[in-house]
């Protein structure tokens, strides 16, 4: 499990062998089954996870409705950054959409690494910057793109998402009803056939 994590981290910073060993000492590899809850809305997020294999969904409850706020796949970091950083209750829940392999570090262990070596501060900053960019792109797409454009963009980013995510969750994430998503998908498939 660690090798995949190190390959992903190497895209951000190059870790020495000692730094890799330091990280291994304070992390825990985990294999969790589908539908496991990593974090419940209203609880403080005490762990940061690296997703080695699988898929997760972020969601929250509003007016008796479950709203999907995001998805994460292999190579992504998983947690509620708001809760993890502020130490306040999370505004969303995180659930596994498939059996998953993760490498997990506690808040306290991450703080230990930050104090031990500046490379961990750099890695943390770069990870947060990447997350912020994704968040802003999603916010921008919700504000400025049509649902059809958001759907096409999502398929460009994650070509296999339709095989991994329930349509109801995808519709919620895109901010449309499941019926509207069905129409969008039909039009998209029709346009794709015309191009080929």
Automatic annotation (TrEMBL):
Cross-referenced InterPro entries: cNMP-bd_dom (IPR000595), cNMP-bd_dom_sf (IPR018490), Env_Response_Regulators (IPR050397), RmlC-like_jellyroll (IPR014710)
Highest taxon, organism lineage: Bacteria
Protein's UniProt name: Crp/Fnr family transcriptional regulator
Domain Cyclic nucleotide-binding span(s) in chain numbering: 11-113
Originating organism: Iningainema tapete BLCC-T55
Molecular function, one GO term: DNA-binding transcription factor activity
GO-annotated cellular components: cytosol
